[in-house]
User: What shape does this take?
Amino acid sequence: ELKVEQNPLFLSMQEGKNYTIYCNYSTTSDRLYWYRQDPGKSLESLFVLLSNGAVKQEGRLMASLDTKARLSTLHITAAVHDLSATYFCASYYGGSQGNLIFGKGTKLSVKP
Amino acid sequence: GAVVSQHPSRVICKSGTSVKIECRSLDFQATTMFWYRQFPKKSLMLMATSNEGSKATYEQGVEKDKFLINHASLTLSTLTVTSAHPEDSSFYICSASAGSNQPQHFGDGTRLSIL
Assistant: This one.
């Protein structure tokens, strides 16, 4: 069964702290996506990780991919309130259609 | 680049009516479009995948007669919820891809409320 598991599902942080969201996947894909979703909104693409060892950073967010461990991480550095949102990882499982399978999402709440 | 427009953004209608949602790729040709459904505080659930000019491929448990999908051109796919009932109320999101190795670009979503 193809699965993508995120943890934690809920994360309450104080501003200024660091934390990591984990994404384990069971597909044999080498492509992993991270998205942000604000309440009532659609998905905003954050990162596309295309190969083993890939690391991408944007502001206070850094994503990495370990295809051997089938693990991706999203690291948050010195969190600020504006980062409060739900974060989804999705694994590409290919095929003729190029489908994605999504994790359940991590709801991040950053408190002052 | 890679903009996907979804319309309408919000629909409120009476039970028994049919509702059509449009998904357009504005600046690229979308060979494949995807329709997702999202329940409150849940993840995205893939409903169906459609290729231009072909019948849609529905995921297990999704009623094809209930959720009609048309992908008549490389820039437009539509989802019609037929004879909608309150349990069809949900957030529907489309995405479009230029090919199987290309990323999916998401529309802004449609919040459907059936009274």
